[in-house]
Each structure stands twice: as C-alpha cells, then as structure tokens.
C-alpha cells in the first residue's frame, strides 16, 4: 500500500533555520537550486544514496520500481531458512 505522501526534512536541525520540513503529495516535483554552491554547499539523501555539493536537486517519486528483486515467489522463506541452517551445520 502506498502512502501517497513524501516527507522532506533537513539533515541538520540548525540549517535551514526554523524549517521543520514538509509533507507533500507523491505527485509533486520539488526543485532545489543552490544559489551559492561554493559558500553554502548542500547535500541530499534518499534511502541509501547521498549526493554532496549539489548545484541543483530535483526530487520526484519513481513509481516504476519493481519489488520482485526483494522477494522470489518460487523460493519460500521457509526453504531459505532451512538451507541457511544446513550451511551453518556443515561448516
């Protein structure tokens, strides 16, 4: 189930000042432009990907991602657990 919302929050609680973040629709496209990248470097983090010293950041939701890589329908979790236990016993 999708939540249909995304959260945008600063990495540092002190910069930008007094901005607690925002919750926006998943259809939104957010563009952040760094007006002075040499004096005020910015970074962006999404999941486990981090970008540093960015000049421009475009944020939008990618709906075409498939989750079939995370779970194999042909191989049950019980089978994986048994195989892992056998590996530990034989080593």
Q: How would you summarize this macromolecular structure in one to three sentences?
A:
This protein is an alpha+beta fold and 91 residues long.
Task: Enumerate how many helices there are, as a single number.
Answer: 1
Radius of gyration: 20 Å
Largest sheet strand order: 1-2
Beta-strand content bin = 15-25%
- What is the ordering of alpha helices and beta strands? EEEEEEH
Runs with pLDDT <50, length 5+?
none
Task: Please characterize this protein's 3D structure.
- The chain is of the alpha+beta class.
- It has a domain at 1-63.
- Helix content is 15%, strand content 24%.
- The protein is built from one helix and six strands.
- It has one helix at residues 77-90, and strands at residues 5-8, 22-25, 30-33, 44-46, 49-51, 56-59.
- Strand 4 (44-46) and strand 5 form a beta hairpin.
- It is elongated.
- The model has no long low-confidence stretch (mean pLDDT 78).
């Amino acid at each position: 189930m999708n939540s249909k919302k995304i959260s945008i929050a600063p990495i540092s609680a002190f910069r930008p000042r007094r901005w607690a973040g925002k919750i926006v629709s998943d259809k939104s496209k957010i563009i952040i432009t760094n007006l002075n990248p040499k004096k005020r470097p910015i970074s962006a983090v999404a999941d486990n990907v981090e970008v540093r010293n960015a000049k421009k950041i475009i944020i939008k939701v990618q709906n075409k991602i498939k989750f079939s890589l995370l779970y194999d329908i042909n191989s049950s979790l019980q089978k994986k657990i048994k195989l892992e236990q056998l590996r530990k016993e034989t080593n």
